[in-house]
């Protein structure tokens, strides 16, 4: 997906967009040495001190600092790349319809087309992979096209394509004995989605 993002450092929305981007990266692939180094030397503060995100963020930072490239890659493979059937399928269709490439994916593609977004042909994952959905949210928050990147589009997309299934994904990861770093990723994801849900609830009140 090709998008252009605003880089206004004073925008409060930048933090939301960046967190969606980070989570998208962690759900798509194990962290490389560069990302692990960033967590060891730079990332120390919670997104908002005293918020619901503080404890899960600190836990994620701790697990990232304890991980190695090798341990992270092995855990990611054990959870999401098992021979035959993976332990966890991070796709909306699987959790909403019981199988991958089902009706939820078709509806998602229709909704993406309506806002002018298409899948990059180079991507291996389908559009209902959690990382792709988080990247869409990132774009809807921080993109330059106000006709697409606005609060109402965020609300609609989140309600339709993230909120209905993301808790089930996070719980599925948490239940896996092999989960360590991704248990923290799942906890951070769930906490963030709950904050987002509450914010959209207030918007609709």
UniProtKB/TrEMBL annotation:
<keyword id="KW-0143">Chaperone</keyword>
<dbReference type="InterPro" id="IPR020945">
    <property type="entry name" value="DMSO/NO3_reduct_chaperone"/>
</dbReference>
<dbReference type="InterPro" id="IPR036411">
    <property type="entry name" value="TorD-like_sf"/>
</dbReference>
<protein>
    <submittedName>
        <fullName>Molecular chaperone TorD family protein</fullName>
    </submittedName>
</protein>
<dbReference type="Pfam" id="PF02613">
    <property type="entry name" value="Nitrate_red_del"/>
</dbReference>
<dbReference type="InterPro" id="IPR050289">
    <property type="entry name" value="TorD/DmsD_chaperones"/>
</dbReference>
């Amino acid at each position: 997906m090709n998008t252009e993002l605003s880089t206004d450092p004073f925008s409060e929305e930048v933090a939301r967009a960046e967190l969606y981007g980070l989570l998208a990266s962690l759900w798509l692939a194990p962290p490389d040495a560069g990302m692990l180094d960033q967590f060891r030397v730079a990332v120390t503060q919670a997104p908002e001190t005293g918020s619901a995100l503080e404890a899960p963020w600190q836990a994620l930072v701790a697990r990232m600092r304890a991980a190695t490239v090798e341990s992270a890659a092995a855990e990611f493979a054990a959870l999401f790349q098992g021979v035959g059937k993976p332990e966890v399928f991070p796709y909306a269709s699987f959790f909403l319809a019981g199988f991958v490439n089902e009706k939820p994916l078709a509806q998602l593609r229709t909704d993406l087309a309506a806002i002018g977004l298409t899948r990059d042909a180079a991507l291996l994952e389908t559009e209902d992979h959690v990382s792709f959905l988080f990247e869409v949210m990132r774009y809807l928050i921080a993109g330059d096209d106000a006709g697409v990147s606005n609060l109402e589009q965020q609300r609609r997309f989140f309600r339709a394509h993230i909120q209905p299934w993301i808790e089930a994904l996070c719980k599925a990861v948490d239940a896996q004995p092999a989960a360590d770093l991704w248990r923290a990723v799942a906890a951070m994801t769930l906490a963030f989605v709950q904050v987002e849900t509450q914010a959209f609830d207030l918007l609709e009140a």
